Amino acid sequence: GKPIRIDKIRSDDKDPGLRDYEVNLLRLLEKICNGMVIEISYTGTTVLIKPGIINGGLVTHECPTSRSVGYFIEPVLMLAPFAKKPLNLTITGVTTDDKDLSVDLLRTVTLPHLQLFGISEGVELKIKKRGAPPLGGGEIQFSCPIVRTLKIINFVEPGKIKRIRGIAHAVRVSPQLSHRMVEAARSVLNRYIPDIYIHTDVYKGQDSGKSPGFALTLLSESTTSAIHCAEAVSQPGASPEDVAIVAARSLLSEIRAGGCVDQKHQCLVMLMMVLGTEDVGRCRIGPLSERSIQFMRDIRDVFGTTFKVVPADPSDPDSRELLISCYGTGYVNSNRSVA
Questions:
Q1: Which one, of 184, 118, 180, 104, lies nearest residue 146 by Cα?
Q2: Which of 17, 122, 210, 245 is most exposed by smallest CB count within 10 Å?
Q3: How far apart (Å, rounded) are the C-alpha atoms in residues 249 and 188?
């Protein structure tokens, strides 16, 4: 692989250099890879990464409580299918926060996105313990098989929304709070669609982590299996009704943005399209997030592949949907153990 050097990391900041969670993520990647070399400068503003072989296997990792485990699992998801051995990762920390994908979204939305590319058999994410911020205490088990090549996708029909599903979870607080979130979310969403089922998930005792908290995760599924998602997490002083209404409205605005892939999963889908077989992959998405635009630039620098981005519906001036397409690099997993 290509060595990567990143300079001027927050060099003008009051607190310059890498944050604790970023260093922790690099250490996790080091555990998953064999022969990977990471050099961080004394001030932490420069990092040099020399990639090794993605090894996989059994890995245990503890995350800091400054970010949720979603921040750490997302990059691992992108690497795990190309490992030498199937990955079995046990990771501990905060399971849901307001910055990153929660474990519920990873399980119900992110893993189905991998199935689009032919990674389906053996992908699993189990929530052993939940951990709300600030102290965390959650535990997640993630297993991912290895593949030789990825399928190319042609996902351009968003379809019509046919059902909404959700998970309302509460830890170290009254179980009644999750029922109140369900009622409040239904009061908003029932106007649009009758097929709504929100599961209440209450963890007790040791399995409920170290801090109290509650959150609501919602996802909508269309007739063509396009999934949009949103979530809201409890804040100090916020009622369960406030959390539910924020989540429900966020889901409706995500659906309104359109596309077959929601904003939170644009980067994952783009990377898998680039690594797919040597053919043209196409996908319809909503407006590009800032992160996705930067990710496209990084893909151009690393793989030399550029995306063609055009309006999905040129005849409709109000439509914000885009059609992205690229030519797959035909990446083959050469790390895979020869059976």
A1: 118
A2: 122
A3: 8
